[in-house]
Design a protein that fits this description.
The protein is α+β, with helices and mostly antiparallel strands and 554 residues long. The protein is 19% helix and 28% strand. It has 3 domains: 51 residues, no CATH class; 365 residues, Methylamine Dehydrogenase, Chain H (7 Propeller), CATH 2.130.10; 31 residues. The strands form 8 sheets. A 4-stranded antiparallel sheet has the order 2-30-29-28, with no helix packed on it. It has a 4-stranded antiparallel sheet with strand order 3-4-5-6, with no helix packed on it.
Length: 554
């Protein structure tokens, strides 16, 4: 990422390095996968890896505990969010930012979505979005006001994106979820032990109600909210989902209903639903679990109606793809996005209608454009990918993706990003995605990404949380970073853009919730000239005072 490029808010971060800079020989000396050595060597290597900084204390303790596990005891640890090491309860300092790699826009330029975005915002190929923005605003009233396309184009400009932050909530635990509801009038946050509802009308942020979660294994991991904002469901390490009817007045908890929705897992053992979503009609709830299954719960008959064996690993993200309930999508630790059509689905032999392969590591989140055609996925390979679900991957690409992911030997929950991952050295042949977006960091937890709102930006942007304590905003057409919001001291797990206002709320593992609003200070043309001239004079003075310049003069 160029430091001088227009339209980017540079992040102020620490000096630590996110990537693991050790050489390949080091990796061979201290392997993460210690299956090929005996117990004594594994114990020695674990302790040595801790001493040289290749492993955290919690990871070393986990490996040592595995050594004393009784023979035949199965390791049921999930590679997604869990509390197996206890490290999630503590504050994690933010790593340094990831590197932005120039994207390949060839596939996207030929795709339908490029025309859709340009049509919704009035953008033309090759036009810089921020140029003429303020002139356009001033001329609007003279020519009868701004059109919807002009408004979206203006609000998508980097200089008019949310800029300044204020802390609206501080807790004593990490914030796992944060989302707007009821057209932005309500905001919901979830911590390990509490779910809180806030009134956000008229730019306020006042607490309305606190919900005490029930039967929580160790933390609330996801919260789904119905389209009307009157129902929510949350999940944890439990074989039940939990439903809360908020009512018309969220501040009145006397009328709230709170009860469990019993699921029927196929296998005994620890069970967790990592992702939950309501259907658009609020009748059904879709969940993805650590047993690789999709669960559908029908609210009208209060019963689980489907259990679909979808993936062979944890399912970390699920979604309905349009206003109907027919098309579903799921993404998991196998790095694949699977698309399901319930009209042709057999539960006894489930087969997806298509698979999207291209990531080189597991997925943390998926977000649909809700047009039934496009979806984005966030991944532990440190990238977001944009997909057209009508362009499915070949079996060769699927097999290649599985092979690449099976060779990943690092754990994103407590290790730094390996050098080969940070530099995108591992590519999946046959990647069918339209675009890849890089420049944010995925570590520690299942970080979310989203399309920007249709009303204000025409969904022309993609935004994501980041383990480096930032919110990163990408231009969907160019793949470039148009804004970086820096202010958190820990991982930003969730981020939510107000559906009708230029306002973003970020929820972080530094125990805080921040609201981003306002715009960058405008530098007028008559101010720009004198500043550049003054800067030029200063630079010339500095050059004349440099020791090497002085020696040459002498």
């Amino acid at each position: 990422m160029s430091a001088g490029r227009d339209g980017i808010e540079q992040a102020e971060v620490g000096t630590g390095d996110t990537t693991d800079s050790s050489s390949s020989s080091d990796e061979e000396m201290f392997p993460t996968n210690l299956e090929d050595v005996n117990s004594g060597d594994r114990t020695f290597n674990s302790i040595l890896s801790l001493l040289v900084g290749r492993q955290s204390v919690s990871q070393t303790l986990r490996l040592l505990r595995q050594e004393v596990r009784t023979p035949g005891e199965e390791d049921t640890e999930s590679s997604s969010d869990d509390d197996s090491s206890g490290h999630y309860w503590h504050f994690h300092p933010r790593p340094s930012p990831a590197t932005h790699h120039p994207p390949d826009t060839g596939a996207l330029e030929q795709a339908e979505i490029a025309g859709i975005v340009r049509s919704s915002t009035g953008h033309r190929p090759g036009r810089r979005q921020h140029r003429g923005t303020f002139e356009q605003i001033l001329r609007g009233p003279v020519h009868g006001g701004l059109s919807v396309k002009e408004q979206r184009s203006i609000l998508s400009s980097s200089r008019l994106l949310p800029h300044s932050c204020e802390t609206v909530a501080n807790y004593n635990k990490k914030v796992f979820c944060g989302t707007h509801a009821r057209d932005g009038d309500l905001f919901i946050t979830a911590c390990p032990d509490k779910i809180r509802l806030y009134d956000t009308r008229d730019h306020g942020f006042s607490l309305l109600q606190t919900i005490e979660p029930r039967d929580v294994g160790w933390s609330v991991l996801d919260v789904g909210v119905s389209l009307d904002g009157r129902q929510l469901v949350y999940s944890s390490w439990s074989d039940s989902l939990h439903f809360v009817a908020i009512g018309d007045d969220p501040s009145d908890d006397s009328g709230s209903q709170h009860y469990n929705l019993q699921l029927v897992p196929g296998d005994p053992g620890q069970f967790c639903v990592f992702s939950v979503k309501f259907s658009r009609d609020s009748r059904e709830i879709l969940g993805g679990a650590n047993d690789g299954c999709l669960y559908v719960y029908d609210r009208e008959i209060n019963k689980q109606t489907s259990r679909i064996q979808a993936h062979k690993d944890d399912i970390n993200a699920v979604s309905f793809l349009d206003d109907s309930t027919h098309l579903l999508a799921s993404g998991g630790d196998d790095g694949l996005v699977m698309v399901w059509d319930r009209r042709s689905l057999r539960q006894d032999a489930p087969v997806p209608v298509g698979v999207l392969a291209g990531h080189s590591d597991g997925l943390t989140f998926i977000d649909p454009k809700m047009d039934g055609r496009h979806i984005i996925s966030n991944s532990k390979d440190q990238s977001i990918k944009l997909w057209d679900i009508r362009r499915f991957s070949s079996q060769t690409a699927i097999d290649e993706s599985k092979n690449v992911i099976s060779n990943q030997k690092w754990d994103y929950r407590w290790q730094r990003v390996p050098r080969h991952v940070a530099k995108l050295r591992t590519q999946v042949e046959g990647d069918s995605s339209l675009m890849t977006y890089t420049g944010h960091t995925i570590l520690q937890t299942l970080i979310r990404c989203h399309f920007s709102p249709a009303h204000t930006t025409g969904q022309s942007l993609i935004y994501t949380g980041c383990a480096a304590g930032r919110v990163v905003i990408y231009d969907i057409l160019t793949g470039e970073i148009v804004k970086i919001l820096s202010g958190h001291k820990g991982c930003v797990r969730d981020v939510s853009w107000h559906p009708h206002s230029q306002e973003i709320i970020s929820s972080s593992w530094d125990f805080s919730v921040k609201r981003w609003s306002g715009v960058e200070k405008v530098v007028e043309d008559d101010e720009r000239g004198p500043r550049l001239e003054e800067k030029s004079k200063t630079s010339k003075t500095d050059i004349n005072l440099r020791p090497d310049k002085k020696r040459k003069t002498e």
